[in-house]
Amino acid sequence: MPLSPADDAFLSDLRARLPDDTIRRAEARHLEEPRGRWRGADAPLALPRSAKDVSEIVRLAAERRVALVPQGGGTGLVGGQIMQGGAPLIVSFDRMTAIRAVHPEEYVLTAEAGAVLADVQAAAQEADRLFPLSLASEGSARIGGLLSTNAGGVNVLRYGNARDLCLGLEAVLPSGEIWHGLRRLRKDNTGYDLKNLLIGAEGSLGFITAATLRLFPRPAVTGTALMAVPDPRAALDLYARARARLGEGVSAFELIGRTGFDFLAETLPEVRRPFDPAPAWTVLIDVGMAQGLDAQAALEALFAEAFDAGCVTDGLVAQSETQAHDFWEVRERIPEANRLIGAVSSHDISVPLGAIADFIPEGIARLKKIGDFRVNCFGHVGDGNLHYNVFPVPGRSRADHEGDRDAIKRCVHDLVHEMGGSVSAEHGVGRLKVDDLERYQDPAKLGTMRAIKAALDPGGIMNPGAVLRARD
Amino acid sequence: MPLSPADDAFLSDLRARLPDDTIRRAEARHLEEPRGRWRGADAPLALPRSAKDVSEIVRLAAERRVALVPQGGGTGLVGGQIMQGGAPLIVSFDRMTAIRAVHPEEYVLTAEAGAVLADVQAAAQEADRLFPLSLASEGSARIGGLLSTNAGGVNVLRYGNARDLCLGLEAVLPSGEIWHGLRRLRKDNTGYDLKNLLIGAEGSLGFITAATLRLFPRPAVTGTALMAVPDPRAALDLYARARARLGEGVSAFELIGRTGFDFLAETLPEVRRPFDPAPAWTVLIDVGMAQGLDAQAALEALFAEAFDAGCVTDGLVAQSETQAHDFWEVRERIPEANRLIGAVSSHDISVPLGAIADFIPEGIARLKKIGDFRVNCFGHVGDGNLHYNVFPVPGRSRADHEGDRDAIKRCVHDLVHEMGGSVSAEHGVGRLKVDDLERYQDPAKLGTMRAIKAALDPGGIMNPGAVLRARD
Asked: Which of A301, A335, A369 is where one domain is finished?
């Protein structure tokens, strides 16, 4: 049975059940996404103020079989927030931004789905606590979307993905029922893990309306360093040494290839380059340590040991907050430089840590068979997660390579799959990677996913086409 | 449609599909559980050697609608491993005990479902790594059961539940299909979280056959202390001070009430009592710290600060491994003392950390209205998880209180529920708490659980009656 459009009759019935001014038309920003691959058609937009409003919306949509597309900050990179065609109702969480409670003594915070990540971080900091989720789009990304996509970022190494930071959820299920699951418990073994099923389901099994989030002690002392390494294998050797010395004190361990520095020089010359010329590979390390330890001294000792072993060739330990910020600026602005250069194909992949050093050159070698490209390989190497993005050589544009895109993606993803990796490490499946999921996912798991979707959302109204192909 | 018995015809067809000597009769140990509440009838037993064997068993059972009951080490406390009646086939993982691989550089280990926890800990240690899951039954409990029940234990505070220690699974789904999900990835956002759905489902959605597990750096220095506190509120104050001083260095924070010491003196007088007379409340603290720190000094400084603030009245910092072992002996043997005394009703509950100090006396006050009892309240107070067990007063036996059991359980669980807590913090639901789940679980979540069970296991063959009531 096909879905029905969110037409005037539906909207009129919906208005009658909701507070005034809940239904509007979508603005341009609701119909675009950062990479410009998807564009939604003009659509109605719901701006609920509460889980109850969301429940009313979902209940009527389920009855009438109208497609619903949830939107948080709209920063997703895989098109999960944009449905092209099908006349859906967009459900925005822009009005549900409250931090409902902070429990510093419990290291817990409760936020609504529309709370912006930076605001949650600030609320935690105000209570002398750390909410460790941190990524480039933290000024716009919202909690509901971050959880629905199980967002990663730079602190996963130490604190885990978004999934690991969530203790409980309030969510509206595909029937319109509200699940009141905002528990503040570290241990709760009462039945199936619905929380983790909704996290990462990208709105296809229910809409998260609020979450209880884990907070952490703020590290007493922090330190940041950049170290030049000859190759990715040396970066992993350095990581092993860092873990052996500093244990869980390593908060971030990011890899930056020379191409990243080249792109910054080309497109954003105002960004300070700490090494000139740029080394083949650079590692950015953040540490957070307990009272009584000296982070700078620890990083300097790590450098000395690694230098003696030949796995680092140069290094800078930040001497101030400003310098630490400058180091991070390099890493954080690479995605912007990438956009200005224009990728032919971008890949958010992970492989087992032991396979990383082989993956990077093997990928480049295989891509050479398709054509001449520049690969900007950077990211969360400590997690085995790289952004492995393929660009035209200077003088050519992405438009020149339109016909190569599928072959490039296939080449990179096949290699990832051979190595036991994931073709979506932290960005999710959205609509971009539905085909990849069908190609690479274990058939037994894929069948189970489809059975769960059919059982919980029999009408197929919840973000149709995201994660799984929409049924007719 | 009712289930069919695992009769001779079924077993004969099954034998034809499996290697020799896979099907036997269950021994006594397969039909009992530690608290003696459930006892299975004589039943056939399958001893598969591989996921393929398990797959054959499940496939035929699904076709013939024969109930299957999985068994690991049989240490579960809620009857998840025993089906009374219904003529099931018991599936034991005693032969699937291999540690398939250790990847020290990746901090990952792959073990089969039947591997005993202590053996996994030892394999990690041999590679200079830590597998932090630790609980009293670690000498018998097996990985498959530990994951299926999302086991907790004493290190959850720092390292999380069993769920948090698992990167990937191999499992046989209710159709008999094998899910090959043994990934070694920290980040993998390719679809619904089937791993976490199977973890904690107690075999009712599939049988785990192997898992990739996370390892950690072994803390460079460790320390153990016992501190006497006047009341539970002071224990929580001490915990807050410990976290502020030591951050994530606190590995375990356990509460022991005076009743626990009384029970040890009464039943296991050989256990050394560190304080005599026993204080009203004692806290056992374990810390694990980075190179360059002094764990003993840190614990002594914590004691000095807390003593000055009036929240501890006495303390002992272990001066040797032996002494640390003695301190832990007190904590670890309390469950044995409890069994020797004989509880009327045992409760594995959690409440938000901020509610713990009110919960303990309020529970005692409410129980007084039912009768005179001794409450042994002990456990993982840092997680908000207490074992709140109710015993007869001296001179009376549990048999004298048979008629009080339901009222006691209801009294404790109602209070937990009022306080936003969980009636099963770490032991699971099994068959013991199916009623509680129906009473206290959010109806929207419970409905979703039932829909998932019906969709994935339409024949209802996977551990029927565990977690959810068996359908007719």
From this structure: A335
